[in-house]
Amino acid sequence: MSLMHAYLRPQDADTLFTDDQWIEAMLGFESALAQAQAECGVIPHDAAQAIAQACATVQIDAQALAARAHSSGAMGMAILQPVQQWLRAHRPEGLDWLHWGSTTQDVVDTAHALLTRDALQRLLAELQALQHGLMALAQRHAATPMLARSLMQPAQVTSFGFKCAQSAAALQRSRQQLQALAAPALCVQLGGAVGNRATLGASAAAVEQALARRLGLQACGYSWHTQRDAWLRLAMEVAVCGGSLAKLAKDWSLMSQYEVGELHEAPRGSTSSAMPHKRNPVHCMQAVAQTQPVPQLAATLLACMAQAHERGLGEWQAEVAHAASLWRHVHAAASALRSAAEGLHVDSARMQQHIDGLQGVVYSEALAQVLAPVLSKPAAQAAVAECAAQALSQAQPLHLLLGRWLEQHGSADSQLSHALAAAADPRQAVQASAQGCQDLLALIHTTTDKEPAHALHQ
After folding, report:
1. Mean pLDDT in residue range 348-369
2. What pLDDT sits at residue 191?
3. C-alpha span between 107 and 28 (Å, rounded)
4. Above 70 in pLDDT, residue 214?
5. What is the distance between the alpha carbons of residues 178 and 176, in angstroms, rounded to a whole number?
6. What are the contacts of 141-145 at 24+ separation with CB within 8 A?
7. Which residues contact 361 (CB under 8 A, 6 or more apart)?
8. pLDDT, tens digit, for every residue of 148-180?
9. What region does 302 belong to: left with phi over 0, alpha with psi -120 to 50, or beta?
10. How crowded is the C-beta side of 52, counted as CA atoms within 13 Å?
11. For the whole model, what pTM was predicted?
């Protein structure tokens, strides 16, 4: 990881898709394949034991491996060479059976599925932790009034809890989708040279299932060398999840502006070299930075689907090279926002000040509804529009100006005045959002723990 990437990522980010993990996963495939084939009577048991010993013993240098792969153009071939050398020197009975009936893409795709399974578990854990933080904020602030903004302008009154519940619900949907898509995506790849498993013949299905059991993956029953639909659907949901995280980071960043001041991340010492008064939303910044490449990475992976015939030339290799970045970025964004949520300070008084500063114009729709039975809907809207301009220019509450307007037009009465005052009460205005918040939290609770978790077990 480069210096300029490291400060934007959580400390454990470099444990996803590492070189050592790739090497271990590829060797794990070869070992498990040989043992599965021996179990199914395809190769001798002593050959399988020799191959398993070689894969557990051989030491592979990542840089040397990359150099061999660069020369041959095939990472799967490069990983086999030191294993072949070890077998030749120590257990030659396994040499002829190493990689039997398989091809280089089988090695890399299955290893990729293993590493992706682990990355998915890590991402799901971060999403769940962030979701719990959001739900706690939602419960605490279900009826905390704040301005809802439409096209970046003040619109009506909502609640901060409702906003948090909406984000929590989006993450819940992503968690469910990720787990549902994991089963058809996290499969062993065992297609052989052109995907028809010709060498394995009638034993192909049994070997695939035995291999899948040993690796903790699924057996899909077909080769997906150049049919990447199930695999890419999982990646696209990761990208969609990144979009939900980006939206949350943007909202919290905007609410953290000094001029807005409705949110503050936990203090962490100086965050500016020249301006010590600043309280930068560092975690939101990290999340925004991490989600910036996500749409482009998703587009790159989709572009890699047009693979020629039975084995891609460059497209598949590009997919493997770029897919890890998508997982790393989204995982890092989730981690940053989880940290932000854990120490988030909500300034409810500031939120109320913003509502009060608009002199009740944010209640215009509710006020017009009060007046409509008396004046007709068009006349009520016209009266509200006329008085709203005065409320802002004269810094007077809109419902009081409407009361005076009614007096001037001979339509005033005490009951109507009380109704106008109630329509301009933030405690009443926030009730719809408070109820929406509770409804979303209840929905999340009813759908929690219904994911097909078996698809993720090792």
Report:
1. 97
2. 97
3. 9
4. yes
5. 6
6. 141/346, 141/348, 142/434, 142/437, 142/438, 142/441, 143/427, 143/430, 143/431, 143/433, 143/434, 144/346, 144/348, 144/351, 144/430, 145/348, 145/351, 145/352, 145/355, 145/426, 145/427, 145/429, 145/430
7. 388, 391, 392, 398
8. 999 999 999 999 999 999 999 999 999 999 999
9. alpha
10. 15
11. 0.93
Structure tokens at 148: 């809802």
Structure tokens at 291: 């989600």
pLDDT computed for residue 58 by the predictor: 98
What H or E segment, with its residue span, contains residue 155? strand 153-159
Judge contact between 331 and 369, C-beta under 8 A: no
Range with the lowest mean pLDDT among 2-6, 152-156, 198-202, 417-421? 2-6
Q: Contact 102/190 with Cβ under 8 angstroms?
A: yes
Q: Is 376 left (phi over 0), alpha (psi -120 to 50) or beta?
A: left
Q: How far is residue 347's CA from residue 102's CA, in Å, rounded to a whole number? A: 61
**CA–CA separation, 214 vs 28, rounded Å?**
10
Q: Give me the mean pLDDT over the 99-122 stretch.
A: 98
Beta bridge partner(s), residue 218: 187
| Per-residue DSSP letter, 220 | -
Going by pLDDT thresholds of 50, 70 and 90, the confidence category of residue 11 is low
Is the pLDDT reported for residue 234 higher than 60?
yes
How far is 302 from 304, CA to CA, in rounded Å? Answer: 5
Tokens of 220: 């899909």
Structure tokens given for 61: 């240098």
Which of 327, 333, 124 lies closest to 236, judged by CA? 327
Q: What length does the chain have?
A: 458
DSSP per-residue letters across 130-150: HHHHHHHHHHHTTT-EEEEEE
Distance CA 326, CA 301 (A): 9
